[in-house]
Write a structure and sequence with these properties.
mainly beta, Ganglioside M2 Activator Protein, Chain: A, globular, seven-stranded antiparallel beta sheet, about 210 residues
């Protein structure tokens, strides 16, 4: 689940997470059953849809992703549950190629990579994770509770992220992230070999 959360964070909030420190890098853990992702503008996300766009030979597949309520009001509560599996050990360098498209006049327009936001390539997620959470440190909650990893390599097996609540406060959006429908694809590769592929679609309305 860690790579799913990273993909979601990258596509919406770009590199802002890299400026955080300590165990708050992945959110301020205020209560055993409540996490806080640090964000800053009132928005509404809805019409969620997802699919596993990976090939049959991919070593990682997402079998379930649930995000509710739909729409999500920000600031407000968000509940996330996910599950997936890997058929082999996944190690770095693990590249993420993020593609962000926005619907405009019935057409899908690719959003370019601007200052770490949009359709960007992240050469090594394993390195990013080691920078965010130095090796030897405990993984942040709720990953520790669910015995989920936060560093590479990711072991072969099944991964489950049970339904978990997060509180999302205000978020400051990049200028291109205006009202409309969006589709985001995260393609993970290891030495140019596809590892996993996930697509997410949603609508956005800010105020």
């Amino acid at each position: 689940m860690e790579w799913l959360r990273l993909a979601f964070t990258l596509c919406l909030f770009g590199n802002s997470f890299a400026e955080q420190s300590g165990h708050d890098r992945f959110g301020q853990y205020e209560h055993p059953n409540f996490n806080t992702i640090t964000v800053m503008k009132q928005i509404r996300l809805g019409k969620f849809a997802w699919d596993d766009c990976g090939a049959g030979a991919d070593v990682a597949h997402l079998s379930n992703l649930t995000i509710f309520p739909d729409p999500v009001q920000i600031p407000g509560n968000l509940y996330v549950a996910a599950s997936g599996a890997t058929t082999e050990i996944i190690n770095g360098p693990l590249q993420v190629n993020l593609t962000v498209n926005k619907e405009a006049s019935g057409r899908w327009i690719r959003i370019p990579c601007l200052d770490g936001f949009g359709s960007c390539v992240y050469p090594d997620v394993c390195f990013l994770l080691s920078q965010l959470i130095p090796p030897g440190e405990d993984c942040p909650q709720p990953l520790t509770t669910y015995n989920l990893p936060c560093h590479c390599p990711f072991k072969k097996g099944n991964y489950t992220f049970p339904e978990t609540p997060f509180y999302l406060p205000y978020i400051e959006l990049p200028t291109w992230l205006t009202n409309g429908m969006y589709r985001i694809q995260a393609l993970l590769t290891f030495k140019q070999v596809e590892v996993a592929c996930i697509r997410i679609a949603f609508s956005l309305k800010s105020s």
